Amino acid sequence: MDRFLVISSDCHAGLPPERYRDYLDPKYRPVFDQALPIQLEATRAAGKLFLVHDVNEAWRKGREQALTGAWDGDERNRVLDADGIAGEVIFPDGITEMNMPPFGAGLSLPTENVVPELQWAGARAHNRWIAELCQMAPERRAGVAVVPALWDVDEAVRELRAARAAGLRGALIPCAWGKLAPYHHPKYDPLWAAAQDLGLVLHFHSGAAAPIEDYFGAFPPPEGSAPLPGAVGIYISEVAWYCARPLTFLIWGGVLERFPRLRLAVTEGTSIWVPEYLALLDFRYDENHFTAKLGDYRSHLTMRPSEYFRRQVFLGASCMPRREVEARHAIGLGNVMWGSDYPHPEGTWPETRAHMLEAFRGVPEDELAAILGGNAARVYGFDVEKLAPLAARIGPEKSLFRA
Amino acid sequence: MDRFLVISSDCHAGLPPERYRDYLDPKYRPVFDQALPIQLEATRAAGKLFLVHDVNEAWRKGREQALTGAWDGDERNRVLDADGIAGEVIFPDGITEMNMPPFGAGLSLPTENVVPELQWAGARAHNRWIAELCQMAPERRAGVAVVPALWDVDEAVRELRAARAAGLRGALIPCAWGKLAPYHHPKYDPLWAAAQDLGLVLHFHSGAAAPIEDYFGAFPPPEGSAPLPGAVGIYISEVAWYCARPLTFLIWGGVLERFPRLRLAVTEGTSIWVPEYLALLDFRYDENHFTAKLGDYRSHLTMRPSEYFRRQVFLGASCMPRREVEARHAIGLGNVMWGSDYPHPEGTWPETRAHMLEAFRGVPEDELAAILGGNAARVYGFDVEKLAPLAARIGPEKSLFRA
Is A2 part of any domain? Predict the structure, then answer.
């Protein structure tokens, strides 16, 4: 084959907000009708604060039809074909497209200013719809269920089973637990056990970061106030750390020791931090003198932290820039999976080929094949035989990447 | 000179708790008398949870006299002489020695479960005493004032002036602001201006990390409960990030732009994170496509983040392990300052020479001279001429470090 099989480990899909109504349990539809205008207004207000409306509208111009691929399966296939992408992992949509699941069941899965029962209802609505979307093209689409797992572990386990039964391949769980129990609490063990046994990848997806007051300078932020100068720079410098933070809790908490087949992915959280992160955890695991006063904190781990990571943690490395590609061996050739972030304006679409060439030219073919699709195929169970004819038609030509 | 001038950028001193009474404003002495036993019990309880009593007692054995150097100036000189250290930067003491300033005015300067007025009173008591201790040997001792700056900026400015007048060389301010205003809030500008004009180095010292509920798994932690398994590993993996976090706010917030002579130090927060941290901030500063939707977040900065860092940020790199020494060029040869952490059990004392040899053997002499003392001399204004005779007598022999 003279083209690469490309699987994007980070794509997004969501219905226009009003259309989630049909996927909600009927008993939540009256509250949905009341909440929808409020939610739309809040999304617009957040968009005005954190995103530059003009820049985004300019970017959208002329792409209106292609952006309906955010929910329309046929359009989505056309868009991905043109972008050279054969397979994709699909997360809910984000603030930029305004098509988040209702009741706070979107990417960041907040634990404040949400009603748990409603957040669950919104998540289930999205999961029903995304399962339908994936069933239209199951060889191309690996759907990720939304699972607000912090409220109720039994409920989360039931939702994982439902997701598996509907053909979904993974679940999104919150990156931050607020005042709820963090992930090293033993109460979550049934969740890890279920994900492991069902073969579902659990995801932490970039989005949430520090508490809102860290950006606004006051808690609660004064009505109508804007973030302090510097807030955006702070956010984009910290967001990857918050996205990866649960790993620290899961590794030291012994979760990857007790559940050796559990697989985790950190998505759109960059990958450049991995080498130093693993060196730090291993250094802390190995050292004696400087931590002696803290007693035994590691005998429950039979391996070094990096060994758990290599075995069980994968990176949805959206829009990998060249500096991450250059660090690919230290990041982990078998752990890193490229992603396009379609349909978000910060993603590589519709210039994916140009971005890829800039980032990857000169990388050996076998390494590139793993990063662009092979690793994701293995992690999410894509049938590469079935995808091969499509990839042979639409994939980026291998010859372009030779140095 | 055939010996190095060594200045420890991280040492600690504190009175036995009851002796802080004499340094308190008289009006706070009655509440001090009431609070002392409660504070001692709380410190003991925290010690039992987080520190291994037996390990620490074993370490202390035979060192009881030398540990009185934590408050006794003559003993302190003998101890430092024997350890090869001519000069030192002195922070308040920590939990391991039980001799913290009263009312929560210790290293971590918490913003919860403290009374602001009392924390200020405790800080002033410590500052009066540490100034006395430093005045006994001003050529050797650079004292750091405790300044709980988050409550009241005017008060903080007054305390900086008092510290300068008493001969202190810097101030410790909190690493974490809790629900108070973070450091990119313009309200702190008078604080930065005062530190800059007075030539006082502002310090973030390792200690505080995530909120307590992250370790205990519940908020508030159940009465008498212990941290969850893995909590210690999590803490030692995250604590350096929390210690350095204010830099992100100060750099993006434009504070180092507006106050170009302000100097900051991150102490006992390791230094290994610096190269990737600076690469990340510069990458975020330089990139366009991926952050375009966020608008202009950098035009208020005339330099790249790493340039502010190189000019104004210094690292109190306590007990530098070999892996940090090997990264010294990327960390910044002019920014990194070795420290011993005397009198803490995790420090290098009383085996400083052995630790130094393990970490530094083979490093070129001029680079080693900068890391072991030259940088700290410049940053804190030590008079190297005055210290030369002492260093020539007690400093580690340069010949030992040749490869």
Answer: no
